[in-house]
Structure formats: C-alpha cells, structure tokens
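Review form for a predicted model. The reviewer records the input and the model, then writes brief findings.
Reviewer: anonymous (R2)
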Amino acid sequence: MRSPANDMGLSAPEPFFDTPLLGVAAGDDPLWQRYQEEYIGPFHWTPLQAFQHAFPGGCDAAELSVFVWILPQTAATRRDNRRETTYPAERWARSRTLGEPRVNVGLRMFLVDALTQSGVQAVAPQLLPQWGEHMSERYSFASAWSERHAAYAAGLGTFGLCDGLITPVGKAVRVGSLVIRHALPVSARPYSGPREYCLYFQDGSCGICAKRCPVGSARVEGRDKLLCRRHVREVCAPYMERNWNFKGYGCGLCQTRVPCESGIPRKIHLRCAAVSR
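Model under review:
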C-alpha cells in the first residue's frame, strides 16, 4: 500500500500493512440471514439493513455487493510480536492503535467518497452512527456488523480456535468492508464450514493460539471475550502509553507464533486444493 498514511512513524519509513487481499460477497447471500438467525444474533445487520441506514428507501438486496479487504501485518511486525509473551510488540501496538484509524478507517472513507463521486452509492457499516455492540447468546458481546464475518462471506477465510480469521495471508490481519449498490463479481468460498482452516478443529493437532493467550481467553468451548478485553485494555493499554507514549490497546499474541500466522496451515491448504480440482 503506497498511501502516505501507511507509515508507522518510526525512525525510517515503514508501512503498517502489506498488500491487501480482496473479496466480494453478494448482498443477497443467504449467509447474512443465517448470521442473524443461527450464529451472531438478530441485531447483526444484513447488507441491505446496513445500506438502508445510510440510504433509506427502495433498494433490493440483489443490487448490493459487499466489498471486503484484508490488511496483512508486515513480516517485521509479526516477527516482533512472535517474541512477546504478555504485551504486544511496539510495531504491533502501532499498527493496531495508529494504523487502524489512519489506514483502515481512512480507506473506508476514501473508497466511499470515491464511489460516491462516481455515482455509486456506498456505505462503510462500521462507520455508521447506528453501529455498536450488542449481547449475543452465542458470542457474548458482538457488533451490529462484523468485518470478520463479512470476510468469511466473501471467501477470504475461516475462524480459528481463538476466533481470529485465518486467511490466505494468515491470521495476523486487520479487516475492512463496504456495502455497495453495484453488482460486482462474487468471490468463491473455497471452504464448507467456519472452522475449516483451523488445525485444532480439523484433527486436534494444534491449539497453540490458546497457549499463547496470556490470560487463557481462547478455549474450546468458546473464547472468553471479557477476559481478552480486560487484558488488552487494563494491562496492555497502560503498558503501551507508559513505554511508547500513545493511547490505545492491542495484543495479537494469539495471531503470531502460530501455524496460521502468515497463511493457511499447509496440510489444510493442500487438502482444500485437492478438493477444488
């Protein structure tokens, strides 16, 4: 990414994120309804509901596309975070605290503006004033629009034991999305279930991400989001401000020093490739 915003602000120029990975889901994919009825909760928006917050009135879900991107952490950021056991590395903290608003939020705003100027209606659901957190029976607190679930719908990855999204460029990523009133070619979903790329759920051979968590929030029966939140906000945030003089939070230990850090675990990748032939 060549944007001037994609710079960590270290002594030498260095990007927050590597080259994005892109995908598209159909606005009328039945999966959106399943998110509401079976997985996340009735509060989770379909693309049509998100779109109508910004553009009330007549529109059909079939007219919409969900455009999703994955922003991979750099090799240097992953390397540094691999070494940590309690707190995030400085590069990781910078990419989460500074890179997310400057690059990911900035990208959402730039694309919405560019599409609008081209005559295409578009909205970034996560930037809508109506967006917020709700309580899910299955997932504790969850948001009205999940970027990771949008990525799953767009064929960009499946979920791991710690709930991180395992993508072709790994789990150490940030995710963004737009809902666009324009028909785009839909990406294939090269998997049949939400845990397909995770070695633990395939054959029990991993679980390293759970061991990496400093507070034990990644569990087989479901991630304890409150434990995770307390760690990143009450432990990591003060550490980051004390050591690097910027406010924010982050951790990412479960996304590094794991087999899915920078790609789909190899034996799963080979099996999926064989099935797709």
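Findings: The longest helix spans residues 90-117.
Further findings: The beta strands are 21-26, 65-72, 122-123, 133-136, 140-143, 158-159, 165-166, 173-180.
Recommendation: see findings above.
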